[in-house]
Design goal:
The protein is mainly β. It has three helices and eleven strands, in the order E-E-E-E-E-H-E-E-E-E-E-E-H-H.
């Protein structure tokens, strides 16, 4: 029989920081590779929404099958301000010899991985998140006149993109809490220096299968 788990408090996310992107250079049946991650922008808010493929079959006046499958995620990321290098990088623009950004109708946003972390309420641990394969859509720009009685900051606002599952292994998203029992210190330390991969072994699969087998049938 499965052991009862202690009803302990789980630390909650209380912030958002350290957003990075890494250009995807290859994704096929042989594997996926990335360039070295680069700092993205000062973070304000991130919203990750699953993209679902759904299907429902009704027969005999009832629902016979009702299934949903995650095929990716929509990311809405609010940032303070992108610098010109990062704006050109994620939207596929070019920078001329004078440092100006050239926007043309042939620009194509590149595929990339997106990473960030959120501090937890115990004030000593973090949750780390990576979306493995996606691209951003050019965002809206908004400007406003300066007012006498106050200062209005024109922040970047929401930058949106769609992230899908990799061809190599079907992985879409990976997250790791530093307070997890088996959390890899080495992997956490390198989270923003290289895109970190899931550690799937036969032992892990066997452990999961054993836990499922221990759950009594209803």
């Amino acid at each position: 029989m499965a052991k009862n788990r202690v009803k302990a408090k789980v630390p909650l996310p209380i912030g958002l920081e350290s957003a990075y992107v890494a250009l995807l250079t290859k994704d096929d049946a042989e594997g996926t590779t990335y360039e070295t991650p680069e700092y993205f922008a000062r973070a304000i808010k991130a919203t990750i929404t699953p993209i679902l493929a759904t299907g429902t079959l009704e027969s005999e006046d009832e629902v016979e099958y009702d299934e949903s499958e995650i095929i990716g995620y929509t990311l809405s990321f609010e940032a303070s301000q992108l610098d010109d290098h990062m704006r050109a990088l994620i939207f596929g623009h070019k920078i001329d010899e004078d440092g100006g950004i050239i926007v043309s109708n042939t620009d194509k946003p590149p595929e990339l991985a997106f990473m960030f972390r959120t501090p937890l309420s115990d004030k000593k641990n973090f949750k780390y998140v990576t979306l493995y394969k996606g691209s951003f859509k050019p965002n809206e720009e908004s400007y406003e006149t300066k007012k006498k009685e106050s200062i209005t900051y024109s922040v970047e606002g929401a930058i949106e993109g769609n992230f899908y599952c990799r061809t190599s292994d079907g992985a879409c998203k990976y997250s790791l809490r530093s307070d997890s029992e088996n959390a890899s210190t080495s992997k956490i330390e390198k989270w923003f220096t290289a895109v970190q991969e899931p550690n799937i072994t036969e032992a892990v699969r066997a452990s999961k299968d054993q836990k499922i087998a221990e759950v009594p049938a209803k």
